[in-house]
């Protein structure tokens, strides 16, 4: 993989063809959020959206842990890296952008999450901002904020009841208890549970399958979901039509039909 220059001391950003892998890289602190990490995450999501040949991102953590939440001291302290300090000053609401909370700054391509170890508090909030989620067998998830008389500012109080059944969402939010990967799977919070040490491998396999699909179609499906949340069905279908018809008429759609007829893999170019 190619290490991208937008990486920071606590966030490693790599690219392999159509796939960008974003690794929270502060294992000595169980990848707790810091200024260096949030700037790296924000820049990674902007890069994924801006690069036309990038089709999917994978988010994971180094050292067998996903993310143990916020490190308030590290998030408030200036970085020792001058580039990170400059970016932190220049990016509005850098923390919300990094945490996948800012609706206007979400990546236009899917994000697949690979969880090993702890993904708690801000770690679970990050997971809730992703599109597909793989958890290792011994992973621990949870939103602990209520137990500490805090509020889940990463968006989970709104997002979680929209993503999983209400009773499950309230169980997590109001009790502040942790759940196992298997419980998270039963709730619908994660897509797959794999043996320990295999979450990233599985997430990369999923990302590879997404990257093989027509990129215009994938992005249009994601955009339609986001833009129709809360709309009545008739209005939502009108939005879906406006987004979907240009995809149906695209060169990629013609290539998909040709490849099917010719019994070969399709080669998509995003146009």
UniProtKB/TrEMBL annotation:
Keywords: Lyase. Coiled coil: none annotated. SUPFAM superfamilies: ClpP/crotonase. It holds the Pfam family ECH_1. One of its GO terms (molecular function) is enoyl-CoA hydratase activity. InterPro entries: ClpP/crotonase-like_dom_sf, Enoyl-CoA_hydra/iso, Enoyl-CoA_hydra_C. Its EC number is 4.2.1.17. NCBIfam families: PRK07799.1. Belongs to the enoyl-CoA hydratase/isomerase family. This is Enoyl-CoA hydratase. It comes from Streptosporangium sandarakinum. The lineage of its organism: Bacteria, Bacillati, Actinomycetota, Actinomycetes, Streptosporangiales.
